Amino acid sequence: MIRRVYVSELDRHNLSRQKTVECEERDTFDYKNIVVKKPWGYEYLLFENDFVAIWILHIKKGASTSVHCHPNKKTSLIVLSGKVLSSTLSEWFDLNTMDGLILENAVFHTSKAVSNGVFIMEIETPPNKKDLVRLKDSYGRENKGYEGKNKMTSKIDKYKHIYFKDDDIIKSEKKSVKNSILQMSCCRSNILNKEIDCVDNKIIYVFLEDKILDVDLKKIFGVGDIFTTEQVNKYEKIKIFNRSLLLSIKQK
Question: What is the mean pLDDT of residues 153-162?
Answer without folding.
Answer: 92
